[in-house]
Amino acid sequence: MKIDWIAKLRHLLQVIAFCLAIAAIHYAFRPHKAYEVALFYSLSIGLLSWFLIDFGRHFFPSSEETGWPAGLAGVALPAVGNVLGFLGGTSITNAWFGFASWYRYDAVELRVTAGVTVLSALAITYFFYTRGKSAWLQAKVSEVRSQASEAQLKLLETQLEPHMLFNTLANLRVLIGTDPARAQDMLDRMIAYLRSTEHPLANEFDRLRDYLELMAVRMGPRLAYTLELPDGLREAPVPPLLLQPLVENAIRHGLEPKVEGGHILVSARCTGRDGRTPGTQRLVIEVTDTGVGLPPVLPPAGPGQSFGLAQARERLATLYGADGTIDLIATSTGGTSAMAVFPLQLPSQP
């Protein structure tokens, strides 16, 4: 029988809060009675009932949805626990104050006390029942969202990888007959690219370097690149396959249409706290090219039309909501800069 003691402590504090409220209600209706007596009754009955129910439920099979005993036990346990808690808590308080009878009440007062106890017990039991079910539903929603994000990533991988691989294999087929040395280098880079599955930013940059080397074999001197990654951001976690579609977009729409090609700069930096999410630092990754620049009207997302950029935006939105954005900016030199911004979560140091 495994017990979550943190949850038990939380339940204990919640029951104490309920008991204090019930004692205050008792005192409000009977101010001629000492408050400490009402408080002692409320705490004795409430804590004993909680102990019997919250620990007693571990001796019965529980529903996965609520953590509450299933079937008849789910009804009998709170009923028996509250009755025993009322009788035991009242007896304890009577013994402590030296009362000869329950709370020295007449029949009317005793019925009122019993009625308040029953209503309070029902309210508290329902509170914990619904909290348990709500926690289970929230866990299920988080699980479904996680599975959806993972499925979306797998779909993105199946959509992006073949496009790059087909182009690479086509160039590899030509190079095997014309330049075996470059073909061997291209094959080695492709193997390194496919083996990289880690998600720290340093690994993502390593994977991007392999991808750019593959593209450099195909484009030759028309493609130059620079990667700038500060040491302090090497372990920053990032979504996999985030940079490759941004760079692919820069090559396809920026450098390839330009006869002389151009240069791509990929850099990362950390910004301070901003107004979007108070207390949160943000990671900024920029992919800047010296290509033909932005057209007057951006093409719609689709096959061959900024597909990777649209998918990267959607993934950041899925993971970070409004805190994850990608913006295209025209540079002063005539090229384009794609800027991805999302919350920075550096791993804690041991």
Helicity range of the residues?
55-70%
**Number of H/I helices:** 8
Physical arrangement of strands within the biggest beta sheet: 1-2-3-5-4
Q: Enumerate the spans where pLDDT stays under 50 for 5 or more consecutive residues.
A: 274-278, 301-305
Strand content: 5-15%
Shape, principal axes of CA atoms: elongated
Overall description:
- 59% of the residues lie in helices and 11% in strands.
- It is α+β, with helices and mostly antiparallel strands.
- The protein folds into 2 domains: 5-140, no CATH class; 222-343, Histidine kinase-like ATPase, C-terminal domain (Heat Shock Protein 90, 2-Layer Sandwich).
- α2 (35-56) packs antiparallel against α3 and α7 runs antiparallel to α8.
- The protein is elongated.
- It starts with a helix and ends in a 7-residue tail after the last strand.
- Residues 274-278 and 301-305 have low confidence and may be disordered.
Topology:
Layout: H1 5-29, H2 35-56, H3 72-97, H4 107-178, H5 180-195, H6 201-219, E1 223-228, H7 243-255, E2 262-271, E3 282-289, H8 307-320, E4 325-330, E5 336-343
Parallel strand pairs: 1-2
Antiparallel strand pairs: 2-3, 3-5, 4-5
Which short descriptors sum up this protein?
350 residues, alpha+beta, Heat Shock Protein 90, 2 domains, five-stranded mixed beta sheet, 8 helices, 5 strands, elongated
Summarize it:
This protein has 350 residues and is α+β, with helices and mostly antiparallel strands. The chain has two domains: 5-140, no CATH class; 222-343, 2-Layer Sandwich (Heat Shock Protein 90). The chain is 59% helix and 11% strand.
